[in-house]
Amino acid sequence: MHAFTQLQGLAATIPGKNIDTDQIIPARFLKRSRTDPDYAKYLFHDLRFNESKLADPAFVLNQPAFSRTSILIADENFGCGSSREAAVYALEAYGIRAVIAPSFGDIFFNNCLKNGLLPIRLQQSEIDILSRPDADAENERMGSHQPISLFVDLYTCTIQHIQHNKPISFRIDPFWQECLLKGLDEIDLTLSYQTSIDAFEAKHLSAAPWLTHSHT
Amino acid sequence: MQNLTQKPLSLFEKIWARHVIVERAPGPSLLYIDRHIIHEGSFHAFAQLKERGLSVKNPKQIFGVADHYVPTTSRSPQDAVTQEVTEMILKFDENMRWSRANYFSLQDPRQGIVHVVGPEQGISLPGSTLTCSDSHTSTHGAFGAIAFGVGQSESCHILTTQSLWQTKPACTRIELQGRPAASVGGKDIILALIALLGSSGATGQAIEYCGSALQTLTIDDRLTMCNMTIEAGARFGIMAPDDTIFNYLHGRPFAPQQAQWDAAVNDWRKLYSDEDARYDRSLSIDVSALSPMVTWGTSPEQALPITDCVPEVRNGDASTVAAMQYMGVTPGQRLDQIKIDRVFIGSCTNARLSDLRNAANVLRGRKSSVPGMVVPGSMEVKRHAEAEGLDRVFIDAGLEWRDAGCSMCVGINGDLARPGERVASTSNRNFVGRQGPGVRTHLMSPAMAAAAAITGKLSDVRRLPKE
What we know:
The structure holds two protein chains of two kinds.
Chain A: E1 6-14, H1 21-24, H2 39-42, H3 45-48, E2 69-74, H4 86-94, E3 98-101, H5 106-113, E4 118-121, H6 124-130, H7 137-142, E5 148-153, E6 158-161, E7 168-169, H8 174-182, H9 186-191, H10 194-207
Parallel strand pairs in A: 1-2, 2-3, 3-4
Antiparallel strand pairs in A: 1-5, 5-6, 6-7
Chain B: H1 11-19, E1 20-22, E2 29-32, E3 35-38, H2 43-51, E4 62-65, H3 83-99, E5 102-104, H4 114-120, E6 129-132, E7 146-149, H5 152-161, E8 163-166, E9 171-177, H6 186-197, E10 206-210, H7 212-216, H8 219-228, E11 236-239, H9 243-249, H10 258-268, E12 281-286, E13 293-295, E14 303-305, H11 318-327, E15 342-345, H12 353-363, E16 372-374, H13 379-387, H14 390-397, E17 400-401, E18 422-425, E19 440-443, H15 446-455
Parallel strand pairs in B: 3-4, 3-6, 4-5, 6-7, 9-10, 9-12, 10-11, 15-16, 15-18, 16-17, 18-19
Antiparallel strand pairs in B: 1-2, 2-8, 13-14
Helix pairs in contact in B: 2-5, 6-8, 12-14, 12-15
């Protein structure tokens, strides 16, 4: 897993509660290998492209200003539904490194942690502060949506709008914080407990021998 | 089990304690996984294993069954929707041979949807930990197991270590009182609960169901409830196992056999929550007050009694407006006036034998006014249904009778509705595009789907006109 330490990047807002993993990557793309060079195109595919495969200019990631988005700001229960890890693969392929939301789908949240993508839970009021557009008079006047620049620091567990002074703190289990900061491989970590696993297993399976019975 | 500290424990805590290999508090514990089920989407996990030169640690505790992509028109991988899918199923065959795990191939008479096959084969056992790379794994909690869905990286981790890092969840206790009225079952209760809790109302939590109503529910109803518990955001649904469960499991292939059976049941009888067990939240509902439920929107939380109308939009909520637009419904519209184009009876939520019986009882001697398919949850369910003549009821009504698989619930095997069509579906998700681009899904019980098939609109099965 690649490490996540600090990230300065542009953020786009994906509106709507309960954006499920079917929206993040439609089921028909799940059979594709992660090495598929088109993987980034599957992200939000049916929201981004119409039936003729033309990009919908209304969808935020299709707007030129958002082409370098690396952070998403989402609403409640982002990534709910199907356990498909491909939702995270698609975000990663597109270049998304962090997602901010008031709440996440449970399995999606875990899948992010296993792939070096940082899910950040914040209160809606904190998200509102972060989402204020950059103070750029011309953009304001033109009424256009512009990405906002955010700085995420996993060492200090803070996130801040680069034009605001005050960082906002977020919480993450120290275990996952360490895994992400070091890019720790979870399987390697677990295998370092092999003696404990073997000892536990020997006792456990002798109490429940049917768990290893053979059948044809 | 021995409760040495005498601290009152919940059912969930008792099972958890039995499986902790390494404790790190606060933070996740390394939990032993008794059994892990995988399906053909596991190619990512196998790719990770092979890339790293890892192997499957305990093949006898791993179970493979193809369900998500399989054709329901035959048992031949060659009949899959595309060549790419055929290759995927064949790749699964190859990976399963490589792993030496238990495998129910597409041609195996035990094949079916993972969450139907698990209980049926005695793979899902009280007091155990069970994982599967599918979000609806909470289903198996109805047997008194800690059962939860995992992603592909987690699946890879389990395959090679037979364990997983897990943080002990918050626990909500839901007491079900009363007796459900006729035509109200597990699907109606769980839809009502999801509407009450909200689709993120129990995120990451364990929900323990208890109360007098539970004993009156069939195993299939209990499985349906635990299955959809995750649609309220939870990771686990769990119910204390009782004699109904023990009797069901007796003699099942992967359950304890002969001499070990009595010892196992004695142990399982200790799987209940202590009287003073602590919960993070407790609530109670009277199931006797419930009516048959249907969803009107694009989230399972958007569910109401069939006697109701599409709700008003509160505070101009954009997500509600978007759901109504997608579904083509308007505030105040009577739910029982919404016309449907298709019916789907199937899925890990509602394709067990009693589900098919409930649908057949409504359809017997009548015709469906819309096209549709009935997809049994497993080939074993299919054989039992045919022995009872249920297949004839569905075929005579004009519906297709298929082979087992996930089919139109997840819509990746080619079983799809057409854009713009409205489906009365016994599945678990009414998400945008779930059953095909532009398809509108209404979730309901098998009896309610059968009623909708007859009238061509969402209908109260209790008020179906006599022929």
